[in-house]
């Protein structure tokens, strides 16, 4: 790109890691330099200029253009996706749902180009072709992962699929999302996407990090300016601009969050970046590679749940998926959020009665940021040079310490926050100002020692210092219309209060390993009772996770000032079993009501009373913000946006439209 301001010009080169900017030069004094650069640019081919040869434009004269129009037409045999019992001849086990074809038809916008996208599968080496129109989701900005999600038509199989096009983090220790999904599929983890194919695109990788810190003065101008790499959307640093040592309270937008929860590691670590181990330790720019992932399921967003009981059921499904990934594949998700928990209608069979039904099941998606629980060496360690996750749903422990290793307790707390967020926003409660609650509980942050940390209300509530109230700093105790939902939330809250009491006491003793846990042998999984009735027994007791760990008491490791009941309660969030059992039990409790509101409790007209101002210079930090969700219709895991290093802000909470 050529930038001209007055008599001075610069050349800029963009990729998904950032921007390389040349020194300014005077074209009147150095016309040869300008002409030389323009001539060289004219000699580049289309691929060198940034065009993607694996994305083939389909014009109106192409037979595939007419074929896409035909595919989009309604078909009588397409299935309704609502939950119900089915007669034997009503549906195949893998029907085409009406909402999927509708989404594909809406993507064929007359003013939007159509493409045939190619994916060379990493495993088989075969090249697959997919017809796509307008993306259902498109992350804004020129830097970052640039995720786009499509309802695509698979040319070879003749089926609709979900295609995710993104610039993945390109580090040695970071598995491609498709490799992770293949592992999960192979060991039989339920309620996760089914891999079709995946692969990097023609070796397209970012180059900007290679130029970080270079000061080549050849052909430089008379100016004293130095090269200025662009701030990068996905370079999620936890450091804020230098601040006074006192903590200052700020808010983070509910629609943006720090892409962070992993323990940190220098970008120069040779195990982190196998391609360029000598990169500067100060370089905040992430390496990215162009990548496509295709899965079978085209799902519905979590916000489409019909009542709070169904919401609890969907959360239970994804907790089971998380537990199975941990126990069967030794993988932890690291980004539990509303955007990554979706709804997928599934035909299931009841073996006992011989009948079948259509159930709305939870689907745990977007395993891009997941990691093995242990490295090949057997030690827990980081794989990316910054923490990763979605701010609003991250645990207090992770938000309060950026170097903390993500554990099961942190992920279970994230599930708790997802349930609370969607319940307060879409169901009936005694909270009169939902916007203010979300502003106070989910969005805030503090700056402590130049780092972003957890907001006050969330921290105090999860640690049991204050009750879960409706107001920003007080008010009535929050209650929902459905009593079983209250039962679960406040039961789980007691366990998390105890968990933080134990952790805080351990920290006060300068020994983070106060409690020792011994994992018992895993029970054999019992068959899933497939057909959901009213109420539906979705999981047998043996299916609800392993037994809780045993607590070992010795003179050296027992916190002497904690009550036994506090220690026992803290253990209930050390594994999945108690959370799963609690969710399962409240599903079949009496007291559920039709509590889904029409639309959203957070109105479009909401205005922030006290607009959020960033720390001084925060716009220059490399912090990633992500959309919590998009509401462009049903979709897969790409309901999230990559933001550049924007200052923390609070935009209106209105749903984005396609």
Automatic annotation (TrEMBL):
Q: Gene3D superfamilies this protein is in?
A: Transferase(Phosphotransferase) domain 1
Q: What positions does the domain Fungal-type protein kinase occupy? A: 3-421
Region Disordered: list its residue ranges.
Answer: 207-281
Compositionally biased residues, Polar residues: 218-247
Task: Give the source's domain of life in one word.
Answer: Eukaryota
Instruction: State the Pfam families in the record.
Output: Pkinase_fungal
By its UniProt entry, which InterPro entries does this protein fall under? Kinase-like_dom_sf, Pkinase_fungal
* Family matches, as SUPFAM superfamilies: Protein kinase-like (PK-like)
Q: What is this protein called?
A: Fungal-type protein kinase domain-containing protein
């Amino acid at each position: 790109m050529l930038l001209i301001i007055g008599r001075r010009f610069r050349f800029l080169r963009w990729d998904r890691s950032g921007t390389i900017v040349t020194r300014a030069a005077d074209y009147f004094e150095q016309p040869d330099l300008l002409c030389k650069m323009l001539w060289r640019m004219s000699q580049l081919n289309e691929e060198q200029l940034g065009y993607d040869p694996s994305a083939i434009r389909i014009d109106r004269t192409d037979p595939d253009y007419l074929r896409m129009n035909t595919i989009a037409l309604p078909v009588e045999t397409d299935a309704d996706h609502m939950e119900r019992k089915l007669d034997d001849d009503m549906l195949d086990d893998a029907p085409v749902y009406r909402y999927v074809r509708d989404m594909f038809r809406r993507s064929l916008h007359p003013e939007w180009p159509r493409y045939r996208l190619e994916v060379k599968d990493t495993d088989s080496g075969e090249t697959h072709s997919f017809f796509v129109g307008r993306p259902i989701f498109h992350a804004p900005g020129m830097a970052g992962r640039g995720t786009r999600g499509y309802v695509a038509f698979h040319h070879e199989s003749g089926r609709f699929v979900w295609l995710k096009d993104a610039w993945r983090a390109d580090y040695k220790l970071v598995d491609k999302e498709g490799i992770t999904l293949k592992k999960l599929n192979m060991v039989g983890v339920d309620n996760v996407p089914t891999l079709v194919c995946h692969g990097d695109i023609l070796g397209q990788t970012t180059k900007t990090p290679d130029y970080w810190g270079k000061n080549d003065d050849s052909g430089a101008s008379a100016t004293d300016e130095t090269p200025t790499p662009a701030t990068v959307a996905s370079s999620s640093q936890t450091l804020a601009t230098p601040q006074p040592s006192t903590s200052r309270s700020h808010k983070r937008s509910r629609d943006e969050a720090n892409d962070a929860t992993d323990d940190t590691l220098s970008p120069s670590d040779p195990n982190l970046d196998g391609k360029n181990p000598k990169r500067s330790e100060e370089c905040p720019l992430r390496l990215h590679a162009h990548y496509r992932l295709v899965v079978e399921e085209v799902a519905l967003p979590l916000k489409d749940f019909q009542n709070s009981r169904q919401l609890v059921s969907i959360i239970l499904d994804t907790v089971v998926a998380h537990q199975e990934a941990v126990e069967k594949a030794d993988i932890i998700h690291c980004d539990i959020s509303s955007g990554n928990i979706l709804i997928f209608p599934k035909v299931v069979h009841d073996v006992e009665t011989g009948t079948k039904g259509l159930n709305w099941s939870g689907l745990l998606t977007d395993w891009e940021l997941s990691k093995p629980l242990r490295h090949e060496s057997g030690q827990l360690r980081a794989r990316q040079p910054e923490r990763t996750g979605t701010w609003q749903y991250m645990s207090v422990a992770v938000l309060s310490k950026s170097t903390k290793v993500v554990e099961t307790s942190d992920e279970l707390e994230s599930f708790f926050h997802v349930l609370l967020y969607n319940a307060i926003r879409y169901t009936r409660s005694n909270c009169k100002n939902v916007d203010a609650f979300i502003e106070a509980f989910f969005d805030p942050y503090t700056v402590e020692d130049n780092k972003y940390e957890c907001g006050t209300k969330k921290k105090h509530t999860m640690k049991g210092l204050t009750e879960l109230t409706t107001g920003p700093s007080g008010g009535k105790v929050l209650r929902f219309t459905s009593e079983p939902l209250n039962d679960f939330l406040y039961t789980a809250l007691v366990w998390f209060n105890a968990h933080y009491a134990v952790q805080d006491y351990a920290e006060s003793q300068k020994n983070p390993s106060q409690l020792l846990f011994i994992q018992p042998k895993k029970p054999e999984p019992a068959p899933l009772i497939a057909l959901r009735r009213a109420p539906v027994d979705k999981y047998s007791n043996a299916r609800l996770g392993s037994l809780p760990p045993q607590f070992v008491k010795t003179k050296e490791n027992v916190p002497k000032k904690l009550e036994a009941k506090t220690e026992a309660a803290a253990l209930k969030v050390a594994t999945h079993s108690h959370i799963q059992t609690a969710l399962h039990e409240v599903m079949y409790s009496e007291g559920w009501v039709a509590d889904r509101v029409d639309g959203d409790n957070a109105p479009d007209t909401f205005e922030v009373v006290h607009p959020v101002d960033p720390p001084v210079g925060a716009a220059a930090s490399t912090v990633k913000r992500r959309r919590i969700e998009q509401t462009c219709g049903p979709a897969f895991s790409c309901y999230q946006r990559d933001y550049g290093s924007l200052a923390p802000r609070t935009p209106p909470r209105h749903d984005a439209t396609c």
